[in-house]
Design goal:
alpha+beta, elongated, about 120 residues, 5 strands, 3 helices
Length: about 120
Amino acid sequence: MYELSKQFIFDAAHTLERKIETESSRRIHGHTYLAEVTIRGRADPATGMVMDVGLLGRVLETTRDALDHHFLDEVPDLGPATMENLCAWIWRRLEPACPALYRVTVSRASNQDRCAYFGPEAA
């Protein structure tokens, strides 16, 4: 069994309703996010790959483009711009092209926050 991971960085702004630190969260503010996508499975005997990393890179690039330098409050089907919703949104975008999708992680280095999502079936 193998795990193949690839990362991408995106910068985006949002607002957020919270119970603490409400004033600064309600204002438009931005973060640099790091997303990591992990594919898990057995290597195909013919190709020796779980998934062609070039194909994975192309799929990630279109996903990154939909988030990078965008106002996350306006991204369709995202909901409140939490790391949890970002993980699930990225999962939904990638799942059709990545049937062996195992985990999506979103983190922010500025405050060491990190969230991992294992898909809707993992609950």
